[in-house]
Design a protein that fits this description.
alpha/beta, Nucleotidyltransferase, domain 5, 395 residues, six-stranded mixed sheet, single chain
Length: 395
């Protein structure tokens, strides 16, 4: 297999210059994230109509020129399941990928399996089998073998062909705007993960009182700062369950902190004072500045109705040739029902009533709740045998 090898900053500048006029760029990355604060970029694979290349960051001080290129409008950028690729682009360029076409996401918009692996889509669309020999490779180790490099580069060789096939169907179904909307939404979620305080995602914290949640917030801030300093996964610095226990107790005495089972670990011994200070900061926060508890599932939401509408999502999705997981899940249904049946002041619009989801699901759900649509068995032999029809009173 013939490919270019980009191993120096000068090589990268020259290579990026040669890509400037390329209308379509496909790429993928290899990274390790087992125990580092952020995933460590180890390899970039690139394919265009005129280039096939490997960029090795090990010998390049800064890969920013490549990410700046991807963040510049004017071309289609193809990747598969590109959450981490979007994260790398934002981290190095400060911008999202421009013109992004995620083959995994786009496949769901034409009714294919979602989320589907790259190997699955390559087999179904291109009728080829990707190699599997290096799935456990440590991509941070050097030198990489020829087998490892060729394994990695196969992840991009079929992306352009897959793009043309999937995009053709997307256009036939007139879903370009839907795909653009969802791509932007998913990239924004990545950016939010990089820029916003995600302390509410601490496992087990949802049932805590406002004062305890404030302690979680300060402990989360300390943990993030320490994890970044040590380049370790935050949960390896202080586990979520220990944060929740500290918040529940609200103690600042270092001896009592140490007595909590799990806090006696050697790695935490030097941080009892810092942990106590974070807890004290939470205790000192004025009452009016405390976070509100997230609103739980409302009693007005009938479990049976919620289950029925969750099934309805699959039914509507199949009728529309969409992968159901892209449209929504049970949590989205409960959010919509709470909004429709027990709306509160300042409630945000549920995802199932917003954008393209509102067009295909929201309108139908409102008709169902109003008794204007009925469900029937259309074909017992089909995988999705149900369909919605106008109820008798509406004809």
């Amino acid at each position: 297999m013939q490919y270019e090898s980009i191993t120096t900053a000068e090589d990268l500048q020259s290579f990026c210059g040669s890509l400037t006029d390329e209308p379509v760029i496909a790429f993928d990355t290899e990274f390790v994230s087992d125990d580092t604060y952020r995933p460590r970029l180890c390899l970039i694979q690139v394919a265009t109509a005129n280039h096939l290349a490997i960029i090795d960051p090990a010998g390049i001080e800064d890969t920013k020129p490549f990410w700046d290129l991807l963040a510049s409008p004017g071309r289609v950028v193809i990747a598969h399941a590109c959450r981490e690729e979007s994260r790398f682009c934002y981290r190095y360029s400060g911008k999202p990928i421009a013109g992004l076409f995620d083959t995994q996401l786009a496949a769901g918009f034409i009714g294919m399996e979602y989320p589907a692996s790259l190997a699955t889509l390559v087999q179904k669309l291109v009728n080829k089998t990707l190699p599997k020999g290096e799935t456990r490779t440590d991509w941070s180790r050097r030198p990489l073998s020829q087998a490892q490099i060729e394994y990695a580069i196969h992840d991009v060789t079929e992306l352009i062909e897959m793009y043309h096939q999937i995009n053709s169907t997307v256009c036939k179904l007139k879903r370009e705007s839907w795909l653009d909307e969802e791509t932007a939404r998913l990239q924004q979620k990545v950016i939010d993960g990089e820029t916003k305080e995600n302390w509410r995602r601490v496992s087990g914290s949802s049932g805590l009182k406002p004062r305890q949640l404030e302690i979680i917030r300060h402990l989360w801030r300390w943990r993030e700062k320490e994890a970044k300093r040590r380049d370790r996964l935050p949960k390896r610095v202080l586990r979520d369950d220990l944060m929740v226990e500290l918040a529940r107790r609200g103690i600042t005495d270092r001896r009592k902190i140490k007595d909590i089972r799990g806090m006696e670990r050697r790695g935490l011994a030097d941080h009892y004072d810092s942990i106590a200070s974070a807890i004290q900061a939470g205790l000192n926060t004025p009452e009016h500045e405390l976070p509100r508890r997230p609103r739980g599932m409302r009693r007005v939401v009938s479990p049976m109705l919620s289950q029925f509408l969750s099934t309805a999502i699959a039914c509507i999705s199949r009728q529309q040739k969409l992968a159901p997981p892209i449209v929504g899940n049970a949590d989205d249904v409960r959010e919509l029902l709470g909004y429709e049946l027990d709306r509160k002041e300042n409630d945000s619009i549920p995802s199932l009533l917003d954008g393209w989801r509102g067009e295909i699901v929201g309108k139908e759900f409102r008709k169902i709740l109003a008794g204007k649509l009925a469900i029937r068995v259309a074909d017992v032999r089909e995988n999705q045998p149900l369909e919605f029809i106008e109820s008798e009173g509406q004809r």
